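Sample entry (159 residues):
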Amino acid sequence: MPEHHHEHHPNVSADLIWEIARANNAFLVKRRSGGGVQFSRDPFNLVNKHSRKHAGFVNDKAVGILPGAKGGLTMTTKKTKHSNRPIANINEVRFGADKSGPKVYKNIVNVTAKQGYRPDLRRDAVARASAIKMSSRPVKESPQKKARGAKAKKVAEKE
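Predicted structure, serialized as tokens:
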């Protein structure tokens, strides 16, 4: 009697998974304000929109950009090889806070392009990385307002 080796191959399409999980999933955020708009907290959803196109938990290949430690970034990508092993299915690349923005963006584009990710994800990934880098910058204090005009300068001198 031959031995049976059970290898797991995903035999359920991503479209079917989306149709099943679309109305209720752990990442869905529903808001009554704004006409019942729906958002997503999925770490692989770069634009936080609840839609089939942006749903990272459904797609075989997905990219996630998250804030890292001390002002850095973490780029997480899904691999297609180990879809049934959640830990082996994820690859993380960390960028420190000291790495310049253009270098980070170039690395993101290179990784996604060489591994065959969707081109529209590249633009969203770079935009998200840029927003995270901007938000982690320290806030610069605005300079004190100077008096303008002769009357304002006289009033300022008296004080």
